[in-house]
Amino acid sequence: MIEPRYAKSFASDNHAGAHPAVMDAVAAANTGDAPAYGDDEWTAALQDRLRDEFGAHAAGFVVLNGTGANMLSLSMMMTRRYEAIICPESAHIATHETGASERVLGVKLVTVPTPDGRLTPDDVTARLGGRGNISEVQPKVVSISEVTELGTCYTPDQIAALAEVAHDNGMLLHMDGARLANAAAFLGCSLRALTTDAGVDVLSFGGSKNGGLVGEAVVVLRPDLADAAPYLRRQTLQLGSKMRYISAQLTALLTDDLWRKNATQANTMAKRLADGVSDLPGLDIRYPVESNAIFATLPPDTIPTLQSQYLFHTWHAPTNTVRWMTAFNTTPTEIDTFTTTIRQTLKP
Amino acid sequence: MIEPRYAKSFASDNHAGAHPAVMDAVAAANTGDAPAYGDDEWTAALQDRLRDEFGAHAAGFVVLNGTGANMLSLSMMMTRRYEAIICPESAHIATHETGASERVLGVKLVTVPTPDGRLTPDDVTARLGGRGNISEVQPKVVSISEVTELGTCYTPDQIAALAEVAHDNGMLLHMDGARLANAAAFLGCSLRALTTDAGVDVLSFGGSKNGGLVGEAVVVLRPDLADAAPYLRRQTLQLGSKMRYISAQLTALLTDDLWRKNATQANTMAKRLADGVSDLPGLDIRYPVESNAIFATLPPDTIPTLQSQYLFHTWHAPTNTVRWMTAFNTTPTEIDTFTTTIRQTLKP
Amino acid sequence: MIEPRYAKSFASDNHAGAHPAVMDAVAAANTGDAPAYGDDEWTAALQDRLRDEFGAHAAGFVVLNGTGANMLSLSMMMTRRYEAIICPESAHIATHETGASERVLGVKLVTVPTPDGRLTPDDVTARLGGRGNISEVQPKVVSISEVTELGTCYTPDQIAALAEVAHDNGMLLHMDGARLANAAAFLGCSLRALTTDAGVDVLSFGGSKNGGLVGEAVVVLRPDLADAAPYLRRQTLQLGSKMRYISAQLTALLTDDLWRKNATQANTMAKRLADGVSDLPGLDIRYPVESNAIFATLPPDTIPTLQSQYLFHTWHAPTNTVRWMTAFNTTPTEIDTFTTTIRQTLKP
Amino acid sequence: MIEPRYAKSFASDNHAGAHPAVMDAVAAANTGDAPAYGDDEWTAALQDRLRDEFGAHAAGFVVLNGTGANMLSLSMMMTRRYEAIICPESAHIATHETGASERVLGVKLVTVPTPDGRLTPDDVTARLGGRGNISEVQPKVVSISEVTELGTCYTPDQIAALAEVAHDNGMLLHMDGARLANAAAFLGCSLRALTTDAGVDVLSFGGSKNGGLVGEAVVVLRPDLADAAPYLRRQTLQLGSKMRYISAQLTALLTDDLWRKNATQANTMAKRLADGVSDLPGLDIRYPVESNAIFATLPPDTIPTLQSQYLFHTWHAPTNTVRWMTAFNTTPTEIDTFTTTIRQTLKP
Questions:
Q1: Which end of chain D has fewer surrounding CB within 10 Å, N or C?
Q2: pTM, two decimal places
């Protein structure tokens, strides 16, 4: 019997286990033979649920992880070898995918410094000066993350403004939605309000950070882009053979708003943690806490003390900034115990 | 409640469900928080099991699917942009990965026609004529599949001979082991006899076709190749975040020789099917049945009749060749019923 | 003063020097300042000449070498990452470009064995069985070489038949025209008859093998493909800065049918050589001599004897096959002397 | 007879013609047959000259243009798919090669903002925080341009300091030397002092901007890197067939220090122009004039007036910054006439 090493991790929502309803759905899918590669009943059912959430034109493609979701999404949005992607410097595709965009897709990321992970329409237009210059890459996609990698959220209006500037300039809007559920929970809106209604063209909907075991969905909102997706999914190494087991998980999350309940719990716990420590001298919360992540600057000597008791990552060593993340399974008691530990450790 | 559409599929071992022990292992892994990306106890336990099977130098890397396993394996074996891979024309990497080798890896496959999916040392040496010619790609990897895509097996001696010719010519030997378990079961040997002891350098060990839900392992048998693997796994979109759920499956298959029991059952059922139909006039079994696949040429008008009752694929339409596959969960009764159906359908 | 090492090379038409008219054109272009990257008067003049030869819709793009011409041509014809190219096994893009198609373009070449380097419509249709199968690459381009790498020529009708099968199946026809001039000279037809009128979509027109110093032209016959070409030319490393010096060479070759005179001389000399040796016992001419190349099988011991006196390449060592090439500057006397040497060397 | 459209261009040193000695060398190389692809006497002679300048271990590779030189250089320096390049934001490889680094090489450029195009050792070390993090690319090459794209020069000591920090961290130092001659002329030092002696590993030596027609040289200063270069040159579309004509040009430039004379003339003329206009109200010279380029901010309405008389590029429209370049053939009279025109146009 394997026992986990940590009572509680605040390192990542990937450290949480799977939600019981997700586990039940996987077990229920294990019945008899079923066609592979998505031609099964569970994947068909997921398509229905995705259309319910994202609109009748939504086409869903189950993939295996978040980086895969991004690469598949972007690969279908770009058809010319000299097209480029405009994204924030902090974008996951720019920082933590080991150069997959450049190596697997072959595209240049035109990265934009931002104060809090959010791109603005002006950021985009300022990168269009090379339009028509044959020596420069030609931006074709604007890529944003909702929630951003710094824990902040775009409002529906902010997304719509980006979609408008993208479309007005012959570009498409991509959303890395690894934590899209957390954004919708924070903003109190539907998934559709942040995506389809705001003009997003292709997005990913994260399952694993929301209580799944494995698997994400790419949702294509422009039917003309979807034809290529099945080929690209195979080629980008994202086609699961026994897809039913992944589809069943995503369907479970999309049933009875489980995704929202899970995300709300995670967000609420992050807020509770932030509220419990924000007054501490020497502790500085760097970005608005709008999801399930807190970025905090701490006195440097307190970091190893805390890390000896709780698992969490140093985000940026030069500034002594750490990241604390909550998940669907984080409890108020866990937060309160952690809060007490932090307060005692930082006590002058 | 979703019901499967087919009573029985003979289309692929991917159509079978997951083995109950695999399901149990996944459920047991769902306890508390655990580090992501492989720094968990379940993945550590899998490493132990892989070393038991493949030797003390074996380094295992959990990946998400078979194409991903191949791309990760090959990417770590090749360091120069002009290196190439010698493989049979029938290799999965050459035929059914939508050009991932060329697009994701950027390498040329030097493909060799074979009578039954098996490469020979002479096939390899005959492709080395361009050594040192700067206008030609330089073979660096010999890639074989065990079981082959045509259902045949290499013996340990045949693999050792290929390893020798590869190594003698400065090349490495890669094995796509999506159905390695079936080969070891057919040949009555250990996994190690077909890999480590035969001189294989990097291989994949298939989980999903052997009773898993999702996930495979890449096993690196040359320590100097393993350093790059973690970076390459992330970049080739094969790094699962909640890895414990995949590692637990593979460990379950590697416990108490479950992999061999599952493979033996599949192989035995294929043999039973072949034995039951091979005397039929108009039916021609194309390759030796050495695993869980049968390739049969049928009278053309009988194919749609049979496909209306059972799910299976036409493998090569111009020659009226179909593929029938069995799996760990195929029963003698299912085989016998299918045999009867075939016999009746082909009755003159 | 550097002196050449060989009195005469029969190894390649690349070994010939530059035609005096080409040299004069380069010298004449060296007058004052001129815009770089093709915005100069000499490149404008070349465009006019190319339109004269290939039709009003032809758009020309000067590039730096033959492999670059092929990569630029193919890159503009393919917009999806899973598209593939059907070509003969003997195609230069498949054999002698060090894997540039796979590495630089990222595409799979679906290669077809042929008796003499020529593809047929049936060869093409036989490779379309995977249409719509998401696990297989999807052919988008049929690529032929005129003259082929084995010295044979397609007739206008043969090219038109390939264009028809390509277009009927949603594909495009590419022509590697490194020796297009030799084909038109052999067939006694215009460049246009072999390209525009036959339905070719994109082709290269070789300059260096026809008496130039450096540089080729890509000619785009479908206006919708041309927009991307300037970006792709820069990206594929084929944009010459002082383009006037290359454009001037190509214009010289296209003036007063110099290209045809040069090609005719080369072809005639190859025919003279073939006629002079074809009756020799032990010498077997492998392919019809339809251009400026002769492929001959010789008694193995005679090859080094001849190579000690004349520079030429062994084409295929296992069959003792050599290649002899002539060029625009080959003279009857040179052929007759070489013929005599061969006859004496092979004398029983 | 084609006449150039502009009396004088200040847009680029690529707009100048070829130096008469270069033309003579090309003409002299046009004698008889010679082996292709670099196995000729002219290329052997160039190798000797390169060794004279760069040291006995220098291996030269003739290529076709500057972007090709960069891609070949970088491709031989990087063997792992997850390696990255640290370079200034203003680097040609980052800004004006239409994404070739990302598309052709597949690498991420880690770009650094700089005040004047020059990277510092601290810039490099600050980008090494992700060493060993498998989610981040791993820097392998530091790439600098000498002269920089902003017309400034690194001193030998500055280059040596970058080489030291690169080598101390397991990286290599690459130099884009499209205008290396101008730097050596400005600094009054040898080519070797800026390269071999300073610890550069691979560099390009620009021919076309120094009075050549076409062609550059890649110079490899670490013998262990050179083995791969011939294959990579072919694959990166940079192998010229009739190489003698390019080698002869480069040899001409490297004979009797013609490269230094040409560069000195260009630099002197740029200095003369800068001196003649730097006192003008409303005109601001943005970077130290250390080569043959001047970047000047002008009153916006004066730019079109000047551009109607002289060809030059607007470098950065939002700040009304133009670039003026001189070349080996620029005369004092041309500078003085241009200076007068500028002064009159900017007169209040």
A1: N
A2: 0.97
